[in-house]
């Protein structure tokens, strides 16, 4: 048994996060005497909060929107993935010294391979969206040796910046406006389609919207929606109608959390236990909202 220690997730707001549910389930399963809590930290108080993570007994923290970039100047060290992503989702306290990691790309790839059954090397991929999550996904796909990358976004300039990341590494890439003929052409030839927009997300900009129609989705593609609330999004419904394979965002959420757990505790995370707890939390939340 490890001595009582503290972990948590910081965001603003933070009430939506199910990380406390599946991280605590993992700690309990491994008989680790630690508590994982959610902390709503105002942007003005981020530096003060990060400083508090240096205390003895604090193992570290997860970081979510809107603090993934703003925590960085308060850390002693940033690992390579986080530096490239320009964002930190995990902080580890080692004897008062804080290191920032980003496990989102790892979680994305592990879910793609293990839950989606798709190896991205050499594949034609279409990313919808160009925000923080899309940047992590693009980085992960580039590292995994994707064959071609198309990026469609409402704000074209952001998609162009992501496409440049790929072309700089010799991977053919193009940026397209969301809702355009070019998007339909890119979708038609894609083997992997990843939604990184907030469309279809509960309490998001448009809960009922899908970035692609069923007619735009090829039956041979895997459609991977990073949105996990609801579990079955409008895009995944469209993909099912098209006869395509589907993967929701909950597996990525759990695997990025499993990687964080392993960084803090230096032991294997019980990923299946975490997945069960995450699904139970989502189903309870959906039942509550009717
Ligand atoms: N499964 C997971 O583990 C995981 C991890 C991270 C994120 N996510 C999910 O991924 C989504 C994006 O997160 P993020 O952190 O990248 O957010 P973000 O940085 O705010 O980016 C939001 C993206 O959605 C687009 N968008 C927003 N409203 C739109 C609208 N009305 N019409 C068309 N496009 C719109 C934005 O386009 P513009 O550039 O034009 O504004 C941008 O591409 C969220 O739903 C989040 O929950 C899931």
SSE layout and pairings?
Elements: E1 5-11, H1 19-29, E2 34-40, H2 46-52, E3 60-63, E4 77-78, H3 80-85, E5 90-94, E6 97-101, H4 104-115, E7 124-128, H5 132-143, E8 148-153, H6 156-167, E9 173-177, H7 181-188, E10 192-195, E11 222-225, H8 234-242, E12 245-247, H9 250-265, H10 271-288
Parallel strand pairs: 1-2, 1-3, 4-6, 7-8, 7-10, 8-9, 10-11, 11-12
Antiparallel strand pairs: 3-5, 5-6
Helix pairs in contact: 1-9, 1-10, 4-5, 4-9, 5-6, 9-10
This protein binds NADP nicotinamide-adenine-dinucleotide phosphate.
What does this structure look like?
There is one protein chain. The chain has two domains: 136 residues, 3-Layer(aba) Sandwich (Rossmann fold), CATH 3.40.50; 144 residues, Rossmann fold (3-Layer(aba) Sandwich). It is globular. The model has no long low-confidence stretch (mean pLDDT 96). It is α/β, with parallel strands linked by helices. The termini are far apart. Helix 6 links the parallel strand 8 and strand 9. Helix 1 packs across helix 9, helix 5 packs parallel to helix 6 and helix 9 packs across helix 10. Helices cover 38% and strands 20% of the residues. The protein has ten helices and twelve strands. Bound molecules: NADP nicotinamide-adenine-dinucleotide phosphate. The site of NADP nicotinamide-adenine-dinucleotide phosphate has 28 residues, from helix 5 and helix 9.
């Amino acid at each position: 048994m490890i001595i009582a220690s503290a972990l948590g997730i910081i965001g603003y707001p933070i009430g939506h996060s199910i990380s406390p549910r599946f991280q605590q389930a993992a700690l309990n399963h491994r008989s680790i005497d630690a508590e994982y809590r959610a902390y709503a930290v105002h942007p003005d108080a981020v530096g003060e909060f990060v400083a508090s993570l240096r205390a003895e007994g604090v193992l570290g923290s997860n970081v979510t929107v809107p603090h993934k970039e703003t925590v960085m100047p308060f850390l002693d060290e940033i690992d390579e993935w986080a530096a490239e992503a320009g964002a930190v989702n995990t902080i580890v306290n080692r004897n008062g010294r804080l290191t920032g990691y980003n496990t989102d790309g790892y979680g994305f790839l592990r879910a793609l391979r293990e839950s989606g059954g798709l190896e991205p090397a050499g594949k034609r991929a279409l990313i919808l969206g160009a925000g923080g999550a899309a940047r992590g996904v693009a980085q992960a796909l580039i590292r995994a040796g994707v064959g071609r990358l198309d990026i469609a976004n409402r704000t074209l300039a952001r998609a162009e910046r992501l496409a440049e990341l790929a072309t700089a590494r010799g991977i053919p890439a193009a940026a397209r406006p969301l809702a355009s003929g070019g998007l339909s052409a890119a979708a038609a030839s894609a083997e992997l389609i990843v939604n990184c927009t907030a469309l279809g997300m509960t309490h998001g900009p448009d809960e009922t919207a899908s970035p692609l129609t069923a007619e735009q989705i090829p039956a041979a593609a895997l459609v991977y929606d990073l949105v996990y609330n609801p579990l079955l999004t409008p895009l995944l419904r469209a993909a099912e109608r098209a006869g395509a394979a589907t993967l929701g965002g909950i597996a990525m959420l759990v695997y990025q959390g499993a990687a964080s757990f392993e960084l803090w505790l230096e032991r294997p995370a019980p990923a299946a236990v975490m997945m069960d707890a995450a699904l139970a939390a989502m189903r309870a939340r959906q039942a509550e909202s009717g």
